[in-house]
Amino acid sequence: MPMVAYFEERPPAADRRRSVRRALRLGAGVGGEPVTIHDLSLTGALLETSVPMLVGATFEVELPQAGTVEANVVWNGGEFYGCQFALPISPAALSAALLQADVQPPAGAGHDPIVELKQLNAEVERLAWKMDNALRRLTKK
After folding, report:
1. Helices within 1-141 (DSSP H only)
2. How many whole angstroms separate alpha carbon 111 and alpha carbon 8?
3. What is the bridge-based pairing of β-strands 21-26 and 58-63?
4. Is the model's pTM score more than 0.85?
5. Does residue 20 contact residue 11 with C-beta atoms inside 8 Å?
6. Element (H, E) at 137
């Protein structure tokens, strides 16, 4: 289910790069550029925004339970951007973000199979992450 977010421009700090940085915040923003998060997973997000970004651009995502997470644009098509987190977030952080976000009702009435597939994909990623952690614990013994 799409979520509302916004880009907040941050001026460069003394310890940061020279260019202006962007932070993606969940919820409706005051004065920020609107963003629709179509898919949020442990490893990244699918964004829709009129803010132009180049492949390779870096920005910060503020998530509950995870704090500030760095993300990179890995592909774009028009106003859609596929973004990958520098490090995967935890399932708890993903759940908290999904619960905190201002959710937009789906366009049109009825069942949307694309939304269902995205939800299933997020669940599969969450389970794969749990399996990887369990396997790592098993191999350490």
Report:
1. 91-100, 113-140
2. 33
3. parallel
4. no
5. yes
6. helix 113-140
